[in-house]
Design a protein that fits this description.
Largest sheet: 8 strands, mixed
Helix content: 40-55%
Subcellular location: Postsynaptic cell membrane
CATH topology of the largest domain: Rossmann fold
Family: Belongs to the glutamate-gated ion channel (TC 1.A.10.1) family. GRID2 subfamily.
Catalytic activity: Na(+)(in) = Na(+)(out); Ca(2+)(in) = Ca(2+)(out)
CATH superfamily of the largest domain: Response regulator
Number of domains: 5
Shape: elongated
Membrane topology: Multi-pass membrane protein
Radius of gyration: 48 Å
Main location: membrane
Length: 852
């Protein structure tokens, strides 16, 4: 303690604005005297000793007018919580165990109030060697005394460290001093979830745990940003286990520093900053810091929200805000080890919840329960009602409720929530919708498509989930685009242009090579090649080879063979690639919607999307989209669109409006996948489809009042319905696999193939029709051209030709030159027009082999 005072003096010599410490009560008293004398604001955080529960730390009153020590950690309120608990449980006789680290003076107020209530309270100190404690009981007590002690042990409060409490319970169970109807109450501000589970599993009977909790903001930004200060995700994220590993005193230390930083910032803004002074507390003549009083007032007026919740100071220098939760196990054999929150207690509202022990049988015979609901297809819908009769309801949730009512033997009266909402916490802390009906005790249970969320579980109880929950995307099926010229799609326009250019180029090359070969053959007196001698004939041969219809001529030249071989190889590759690409294109055209995930939805800009305002889905996207620690920016993009203009642009007021908007097109509705699947299955036009995304591990459950005795019975019967398959039968009833509409038609690729429709090959038929029409047109033009030429030639008598003489002369020439001569086809090629132009008396002169 003296060393601590010396250390504080050394800091004051350097010059400080305030002092933050975390010590025991004795050291705090010494530091209080020092800081009061030097006028240095002192934020004191009381630290636990040995893991035992904390007792009140009474600081010495200052002789000065102003006390400079502020208690950052709230006063000990465990006595108030324990007194409320034993009152609710209606205990008349119980025993309190405490260890050597616990200051028994902290129980004085509790014992005084218990005495005024007429309660029989026993106290027993537990030695560090707990095994020896129980051994002494058996050696010093007789059998009758042990039986009385065992009866006293049925109701016990443990003021021990977590490890000591577990050892104590284990020894009590092993020595047969604990029974199945024992009720252990463990009280400690600091205990982790793992330590609670170890206690519960060790205990025989019922276990109740009281510990301090800290409220968390729903908004992730507010969680990690406190007073313009960013907090590490290890501390602000409740899912991180690191937060529970820290001692409560360390959390208050963090918030104390945050409070000082806030005070310094306001001092700088107000321009009332007092410079630090070097103080020597060892000299009696040293004057206190003249800026201490002003700094103390600034700190007292501060208000922050830190890791421990709200921190501010009253006039007496204490932080009043503290909250406890009361955890416990139920009496059900099936859920005997199921730990749940029974109630909460805070310094302003007191107890919230019920702790009374209420045993139930295996059924609810003779009970009539009040049920609140909200219409949501296909969970709850209004059935056709008879005039004058009460409203009747139908749906999946109603079928589940009927099955439970038949199984447990209760009756129910059902009504709709006045505001038609599930339940959302308002700014003033109250709840609306079905959750508000349960909190205000107007209903015993709530059933519909209500999801189990941590926020709702903090104020009401939920049964086991009877159906899994996920968010889906309801979107209009894309209209099938018909492209009659889809046969050109496998190749790009540039490829088609190159192919179209290659055909005449190769045709010209073949024509040139053919003429060269013809000249060489004529000079060498060899047979002439049989390929066409005209350009259009050569192009026709190339085109025939390209469409795999073969050629009409024999290729004798090596150069021609190289050209044709290259062309055939080119044709083979092009045709094979075209066939494969066409098959792939026709397959891809039958694939699913391009929007298959939330990531796809966030990347596109053509389709707007949204959900129901102030719903669980809305809050989910808000939490994910505003979380600065989220690595994937998908939810940030989604939330930016959903929250545009505070949700007025893209969000709807109820699910029915969202479904109607999605059916109209150009809108994607984000909602419970079970609801939108039912809407898609029952759509008259089958115009919408559902894209499912399992983004949450939540489920649908039955909500009950906080501390309701019916919770375990409902949970047990729901599990029985799941195991027997009855729930699957009900699901098939409302979500049939083979319904009116096929949800997979635009969501999955067709694995079993599908016949090609006419529009896929309409382009082929169009090309054929164009070719036929073009051929008819060309034929008509040729006929017209020939008829006009005939009319423009010489008179008929001048065009007569002695054809018999021509044939006789040609035959004679062939006979004469058959051994040595060859008639070149080019030398006797006479068209019909040339024959018509010959004179009747004209004769053919013989031509020798040399062409003379």
């Amino acid at each position: 303690m003296i060393q601590l005072s010396y250390a504080a003096c050394d800091l004051m010599t350097l010059g400080i604005l305030a002092l933050v410490t975390s010590t025991g009560c004795a050291s705090a008293n010494a530091l209080q005297s020092l800081t009061d004398a030097m006028h240095i604001p002192h934020l004191f955080v009381q630290r636990n000793t040995g893991g035992s529960p904390r007792t009140a730390c009474h600081l010495n009153p200052s002789l000065e007018e102003e006390e400079y020590t502020l208690a950052a950690r709230p006063p000990v309120r465990l006595n108030d919580v324990m007194l409320k608990l034993v009152t609710e449980l209606r205990w008349q006789k119980f025993i309190v165990f405490y260890d050597s680290d616990y200051d028994i003076r902290g129980l004085q107020g509790f014992l005084d109030q218990a005495s005024r209530l007429g309660l029989d309270v026993s106290l027993q100190k537990v030695d560090r060697n707990i095994s020896r404690v129980f051994a002494n009981l058996f050696t010093t007590m007789k059998t009758e005394e042990l039986n009385r002690y065992r009866d006293t042990l049925r109701r016990a409060i443990l003021l021990l460290s977590p490890r000591g409490a577990q050892t104590f319970i284990n020894e009590a169970v092993e020595t047969n001093l604990a029974s199945k109807d024992s009720h252990w109450v463990y009280v400690n501000e600091e205990i982790t979830d793992n330590e609670i589970l170890e206690l519960v599993h060790s205990a025989l009977g019922r276990m109740t745990v009281i510990r301090q909790i800290f409220p968390l903001s729903k908004d992730n930004n507010q969680r990690c940003m406190r007073n313009n200060h960013r907090i590490s995700s290890l501390l602000c994220d409740p899912q991180e286990g690191y937060l529970q590993m820290l001692q409560v005193s360390n959390l208050y230390l963090y918030d104390s520093v945050l409070m000082l930083a806030n005070a310094f910032h306001r001092k700088l803004e107000d321009r009332k900053w007092h410079s630090m002074a070097s103080l020597n507390c060892m000299r009696k003549s040293t004057k206190p810091w003249n800026g201490g009083r002003s700094m103390l007032e600034t700190i007292k007026k501060g208000h922050i929200t830190g890791l421990t919740g709200v921190m501010e100071f009253r006039e007496d220098g204490a932080n009043p805000y503290v909250q406890f939760e009361i955890l416990g196990t139920s009496y059900s054999e099936t859920f005997g080890k199921d730990v749940r929150r029974l109630a909460t207690w805070d310094s302003e509202k007191g107890l919230n919840g019920s702790l009374q022990e209420r045993r139930l049988g295996s059924d609810l015979q003779g009970l009539t329960l009040k049920v609140v609901t909200v219409l949501e297809e296909p969970f709850v819908m209004v059935a056709e009602n008879i005039l004058g009769q009460p409203k009747r309801y139908k749906g999946f949730s109603i079928d589940v409720l009927d099955a439970l009512a038949k199984n447990l033997g209760f009756k129910y009266e059902i009504y709709q929530a006045p505001d038609g909402k599930y339940g959302h916490q308002l700014q003033n802390g109250s709840w609306n919708g079905m959750i508000g009906e349960l909190i205000n005790k107007r209903a015993d249970l709530a059933i519909s498509a209500i999801t189990i969320t941590p926020e709702r579980e903090s104020v009401v109880d939920f049964s086991k989930r009877y159906m899994d929950y996920s968010v889906g995307i309801l979107i209009k099926k894309p209209e099938e685009k018909i492209n009659i010229f889809s046969l050109f799609a496998p190749f790009d326009f540039a490829v088609w242009a190159c192919i179209a250019a290659a055909i005449p180029i190769v045709g010209v090359l073949i024509f040139v090579l053919n003429r060269i070969q013809a000249v060489r053959a004529q000079n060498a007196s060899q047979p002439s090649p049989s390929a066409s001698s005209t350009l259009h004939s050569a192009i026709w041969v190339v085109y025939g080879a390209f469409v795999q219809q073969g050629g009409e001529s024999t290729v004798n030249s090596v150069a021609m063979r190289i050209v044709m071989g290259s062309w055939w190889l080119f044709t083979l590759i092009v045709c094979s690639s075209y066939t494969a690409n066409l098959a792939a294109f026709l397959t891809v055209s039958r694939m699913d919607n391009p929007i298959r995930t939330f990531q796809d939805l966030s990347k596109q800009m053509d389709i707007s999307y949204g959900t129901v305002r102030d719903s669980a889905v809305y809050e989910y996207f808000k939490a994910k989209g505003t979380n600065p620690l989220e690595q994937d920016n998908t939810f940030a993009e989604l939330w930016r669109t959903i929250s545009k203009n505070n949700g007025a642009d893209n969000c709807v007021s109820n699910p029915s409006e969202g479904i109607r908007k999605a059916k109209k097109g150009n809108y994607a509705f984000l909602w419970d996948v079970t609801v939108v699947e039912y809407a898609a299955l029952t759509d008259d036009e089958c115009s919408v489809t559902v894209i499912g995304n399992s983004i949450s591990s939540k489920g649908y459950g039955i909500a009950l009042q906080h501390g309701s005795p019916y919770r375990d019975l409902f949970s047990q019967r729901i599990l029985e319905l799941q195991e027997s398959g009855d729930l699957d039968v009900l699901k098939q009833k409302w979500w049939p696999r083979m319904g009116r509409c096929d949800l997979n038609s635009h969501t999955n690729a067709q694995t079993d193939g599908k016949a090609l429709k006419l529009h896929s090959f309409a382009g082929v038929f169009c090309i054929l029709a164009i070719g036929l029409l073009l051929a008819c047109l060309v034929a008509a033009l040729e006929l017209w051209w020939n008829s006009n030429r005939c009319h423009q030639e010489t008179p008929k008598e001048d065009k007569e030709v002695n054809l018999e003489q021509v044939h006789r002369r040609m035959n004679s020439l062939i006979d004469e030159d058959i051994a040595h001569k060859q008639i070149s086809p080019a030398s006797i090629e006479i068209s019909a027009l040339e024959i018509g132009g010959m004179q009747p008396a004209q004769t053919l002169e013989p031509t020798n082999a040399k062409g003379e």
